[in-house]
């Protein structure tokens, strides 16, 4: 089916008829090809795997952050223990020197 329309264009004082036609298939959109439905098993499996990956990644980053914090706390405790040990060692050295001085008298 063809639709025809006449358009009048002025040409130096007189009107000229010009025909314009468009075929029907160009007007109508072509039907979309049928989609293959994703099966419930494939969709469920894909959803499960996606959820498992997201949950695993979030747990990994949570544990990694917790490990970093506990590691920093452990390093702080080790540093404090080293300072206390050095202080105790200097105190013991001072006491030993005083005992030696008292024995000499």
UniProtKB/TrEMBL annotation:
<keyword id="KW-0472">Membrane</keyword>
<keyword id="KW-0812">Transmembrane</keyword>
<keyword id="KW-1133">Transmembrane helix</keyword>
<feature type="transmembrane region" description="Helical">
    <location>
        <begin position="40"/>
        <end position="63"/>
    </location>
</feature>
<protein>
    <submittedName>
        <fullName>Uncharacterized protein</fullName>
    </submittedName>
</protein>
């Amino acid at each position: 089916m063809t639709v025809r329309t006449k358009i009048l264009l002025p040409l130096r004082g007189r009107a000229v008829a010009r025909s314009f036609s468009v075929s029907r298939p160009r007007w109508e959109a072509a039907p979309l090809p049928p989609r293959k439905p994703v099966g419930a098993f494939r969709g469920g499996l894909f959803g499960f795997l996606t959820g498992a990956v997201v949950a695993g990644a979030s747990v990994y980053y949570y544990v990694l952050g917790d490990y970093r914090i506990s590691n920093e706390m452990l390093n702080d405790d080790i540093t404090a223990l080293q300072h206390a040990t050095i202080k105790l060692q200097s105190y013991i050295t001072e006491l030993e020197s005083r005992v030696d001085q008292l024995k000499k008298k």
